[in-house]
Structures are given as C-alpha cells and as structure tokens.
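Case study 2.
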Amino acid sequence: MVNAIDARRAQATRPPMGWNSWDCFGGSVTEAEVIANAEYLAEHLLHVGWDTVVVDIQWYEPEPGLSDYERTSRAVLDGWGRQLPAPNRFPSATDGTFRSLADRIHGLGLRFGVHLMRGVPRAAADLDLPILGSSATCGQIADRASVCSWNPDSYGVDMSVEGAQEYYDSVIAQLASWGVDFIKLDDVLYPPIEADEIRAISRAIDATGRPIVLSLSPGKRLSTEHLETLRDSAQLWRISDDLWDDWAGLREQFQRLARRAPLQRAGAWADADMLPLGRIGIRSHVGVDRQSFLTSAEQRTMLTLWCIGRSPLMFGGHLPDTAPETLALLQNRGALALLDAETSREIIRDGDLVVWAAEHGTTRWRAVFWLGEESTTLRVHLADLGCSGAGRVTEVWNGHQQTVTDGAIPLGLEPHGVMLLRIDA
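Prediction:
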C-alpha cells in the first residue's frame, strides 16, 4: 500500500511545470486573469507538460496593494480563523470556497494550486477565534514574536501548544475540500528554517488523503544540511530569494544549481524559482509593466539551466501576451526532455565558460554556457565532454546538426548565451 508521502511524491516524479500569478499580478490577481492564463496554458502548453495553475499570495484580501502589501491585512476569514477567497476578486467564490474555480481548472485538464503563508492570520489571533477540532483558540497558538519580515498577514504558530496541529489540519483539510492539488507555502525557508511548521503542514496534507504537492519558499541562504528534512516533508523547495529579469540574478543561479543538481531525485526537487519571462510587472511588487528584460540569449540560457538542473518550471508572465518566440522556447520538447534526465552536473567552470552534462539512458546532453559580455567562438573537444566517438551532435534550440572535426566542435556563442547539444552515438 502506498503511504501518503509517497503518493505526494508520485505527483511530482518529474519537476512540476506550470504558471504562477506572482510575477505579473503580485498579490492582486483576479479570477478572470487566472482563467485567461489557464485557458492559454491548456491550449498551447499542456501537450508538452505544463499542467499546473497557481494563484499566488493574498487571494483572501479584498483590497490588496497593487505595488506593495497594505500595512494591515484585512483578510476574509471564516469562523474558524481560516482564509477564504475574496469574492470581489473571485466572483465564483460567493460560497466561500475555491471549489468552482478548481473545477474549472480541472476541466481544462490542469492542476490547481494556491499560495499559503505559514501561520495564523493576525486578525484571527487578535479576535481569538476558535479552532476547529480543538478547545484552543487562534490567539493561544499564535507566536506573535514569529512574524514575516515582508508580509503583514500572519503570526507564526507555536507548535508546542494545544491546538497548533489542529489549526493546520483544519486549514489544509479545507483546501483539500476545494480541490487544491498544489500548495506554495511561504516564509518557511529563511534561516533558521521553520522546520516544525513545515512538518505540521506536511502531516496535515497527509491526513487529508489527497496527494497535494507541497512547495516551500523563498529559500534565502538555504543550507544543504536541511536536505533530509525537506525531502521528508515537501516535494520542491526554493533555493533562492525571488528571482527577477536581470542577468546578475540569473548568473547567481548557476552556482546554486551546480550544488543542488546532483542531489535531485524524483518527488524531491530543488527549485531555482519562477521564470520571469514574457509580460511581467503588470501589477507586481517589483518593476513596471514590461516584457522581460532578459535578452533572447539569456532566456535560452535560463531555460537550459533550469531544465538541465532539473528545476521545477513555473512561468511568471501573463500568458495571453506571450510573444511567439517565447512560446517556442516553452514548447521545445528537446529542451524539456532534460527534465527526465537520470543525472545532471556541472563539469567545467573556467572563467566565463560553464559546461553541464546530463544523461538519460543512452541519450547524452551537454550545455555549453558563455557568461561573458562579448560574443566568442570556442572549439569544444568531445573528449572534454566525455563524448568521444559521438556519431551525431545536434543543437537542441535551433535543431541544426553540428560539424565534428578532429574530435572537436566549433561553437559561436552570444553574450550570456548557450549551445545545448544532444549527442547521439
């Protein structure tokens, strides 16, 4: 018999792929915007594996900040201190649930996810609301000294007191009853990680009998010493703070993924964060309404690094406004096949040259990254790639077969660019 955590891992045997509302709409996404992105995802990307739609932070706030959080949370709550969808933003939630929206997402063949701040809503604690299944109250479990430094919504939960587990059980049971398939749990990985609350929410998911995938964030200064704790409780976890559309941030992800890639395993994925591509910043908390500032070369580099590092892929842009060239990147089956690799690792790092390797059965890939500020031409030797005797070398992004002369391949690389090579015997 499959136990609960194994059932959850089975929902993430491959790194999850989907869309998240944060990069384009911040905390103010509406039901209409979620549906528009879900319908686009189903029509254009589901066939290559993109199957999850996540409503990010503050879906319970009737009047969220459009460029930052309001100083005081005015969340819609039920009588048990649990957050409910704001009906002015989610008209189908007049019954106090996401059931209708979840059903619509599921009807498109997609999975439905929501964001959740750790803790108990401050209003629930201040009003000392009762906890379902316990004689304790929200005020009694609230740890008022444990608060998020950047979001005003919640107090932490003191897991040593009566009612703490029951509160999380009631919150997750409600999400499960709505049809939630994916939870992005926030404010749990800044040092020190909130291990007790992570475990409590994992137990609460298991108690529902619904195999909800658990994603942890944001991941600032996250140590590999926590690996087993994370594997025991979650299916993916962020390894950085929020990533936006700038080269310096993208370049920093190389060292993080190089450390994590050899540790990846089915159902337990290190997450390099969302893909800030396409139209972002419409009502987000960082930057202006814009098409991603990353160049075409940098976008290919990002997708290549995420795929060969086997990171989850969550697109951050407003999908209906996606340019054809960006859509083509997201639909490239050759690059997405890297997510099924059995191993991946960095094999060369020398100045601005970085090379990664991955294998799946007899298929081999080598990604040659150039981090320099000017274009360059390199002569890459197959022996250095561990691929002596290769019969055919194909560049995945453009589909062109590469010429091999005297055991080497000449490559022309753009600034911040990549050549992703599939090598067949």
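Residues 164-178 form the longest helix (15 residues).
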